[in-house]
Amino acid sequence: MKKNLLLPILFVCCLFSCEREPDFSKTLQEYYDFGLPKIERNWSYEELEISAKLLGRMKQKDSFPLPKLNSRKSSKYFEKILSAMPRLSLKDSLSYRRKARDFNFMQKMVQRFVQVYGTSEKEQKYYSNEFMALNKLVLEEVAKMTLLYYDFIEQASPEYADQMNANSATFQNGVLTVLEATLENHQDHFKYNSEDKIALARTFSEHIEKIWHLIDIDSKERLLTQIQNIAEQNEIRKVRNIYSEFLESVGPKDH
To answer: What is the pLDDT of residues 5-33, one digit of tens each?
Structure first.
């Protein structure tokens, strides 16, 4: 009897191993041999840029060699890329100018890595986790930057506050661009993993609800049109539910 019980268990294990996504990424040593910076030390801005540049070159030689978030071989390298990105703090003593510089560099580097990972249908499917991790990072930082921007206006000298208020439309447009691009990632023709799209929806809802009162009316109207469409028509039920709850939370009173 024991032998008979082992057979179906072994068969199930084999099925799960066969369904596991193939991993074409490299080992840490292979990345190091290619010249990428080691993950043990703190990276400078320059080393983060070097990583993007060299990974781009590596991809030109090999279709899917880039670090993956859930890879046994390369997850530590992708995690290092994420952790090396400058993050904003609402409580530290850095000047607003320094925080704005860090934020702009983070946006530039995320865009660089998205370009490196690629946007073809195959790349969307294979690098879904990585795309969405980068998108979620940007959402989190955009929310913090928005809070910092308007908090700084309140605390700045009248002259400086007037200058920032004059630039508010440009800032709002930048926020709108990020949020619209995020919502577009829920469209059916983007082949990201369903679980990743659900996680992205949760991140959007959690962080954008915090800054909804700071978004201008015109931007809200454009975003609400997209969100309403997702809540009604998206192919993923959980995504529909998350955005429906978001619409209820921001409510007519806020726009």
So the answer is: 443 443 443 343 444 678 999 999 999 99
The closest alpha carbon to 144, from 183, 88, 102, 98, belongs to 88
Residue 229 vs residues 219, 220, 255: alpha-carbon distances, Å: 16, 14, 17
pLDDT over threshold 60, residue 4: no
Dig out the tokens for 16 from the structure. Answer: 């799960």
User: Tokens standing for 204?
Assistant: 């959007």
Q: How far is CA 16 from the centre of its chain?
A: 29
Instruction: Write down the pTM of the prediction.
Output: 0.88
Report how far residue 157's alpha carbon sits from residue 134's, in angstroms, rounded to the nearest whole number: 35
Whether 147 and 103 have beta carbons less than 8 Å apart is answered as no
| Cα torsion 5, 8, 12, 14: sign | positive
3-state SS record for 182-200 = HHHCCCCCCCCCHHHHHHH
CA 68 to chain centroid: 14
How confident is the model over 190-233, as pLDDT tens digits?
A: 999 999 999 999 999 999 999 999 999 999 999 999 999 999 99
Q: Which residues contact 29 (CB under 8 A, 6 or more apart)?
A: none
Residues 6 or more apart whose CB falls under 8 angstroms from that of 44 comprise: none
Spacing of C-alpha 185 from chain mean position: 11
**Are 217 and 255 contacting, i.e. CB atoms less than 8 angstroms apart?**
yes
